[in-house]
Amino acid sequence: VQLQASGGGLVQPGRSLRLSCAASGSIFRINAMGWYRQAPGKERELVAQIQSIIGGGGTNYADSVKGRFTISRDNAKNTVYLEMNSLKPEDTAVYYCNADIWRTGTYSTNTYWGQGTQVTVSS
User: Fold this and answer.
1) Which residue from 103, 99, 85, 95 is spatially nearest to 34, judged by alpha carbons?
2) pLDDT tens readout for residues 4-45
């Protein structure tokens, strides 16, 4: 199983970016999917998470991004998205996606991480 993240880049304050993360491999089911970020010198923090349909489909966000970021998923494509609006310099970080995945032929889930994509917000 692999997670491939994309969509990062350099953007001016106030602008938008959309991150994508696609899971591939022998996947039976994906439970929660999420986005974390890590800024230089800081610990990795949760940005947003979305549950599966079976899990209720709920979302939760870090207080710092509420009202600006939106997480969504396309279950047919095993993909999670992060729409980031009104970006601020303090949103600059490496963004990582993760997913709780039940692999085909197994009886438990594991958490998988994407490779990270750099988001830089600067004028």
Assistant:
1) 99
2) 999 999 999 999 999 999 999 999 999 999 999 999 999 999
Whole-angstrom Cα distance, residue 94 to residue 68? Answer: 18
* Cα(21)–Cα(19) distance, integer angstroms: 7
Asked whether 104 and 27 are in contact (CB, 8 A), the reply is yes
DSSP symbols for 12-77? -TT--EEEEEEEESSEEEEEEEEEEEE-TTS--EEEEEE--TTTT--EEE-TTTTTTEEEEEEGGG
C-beta atoms surrounding 30 within 10 Å: 20
Question: How many other β-carbons are positioned within 10 Å of the β-carbon of residue 99?
Answer: 25
At 63, phi and psi to the nearest 5? Answer: -55, -35
Residue 120, burial from CB neighbour count under 10 angstroms (0-12, 13-18, 19+): middle
Cα–Cα dist 24/77, whole Å: 9
Dist CA 117 CA 113 (whole Å): 12
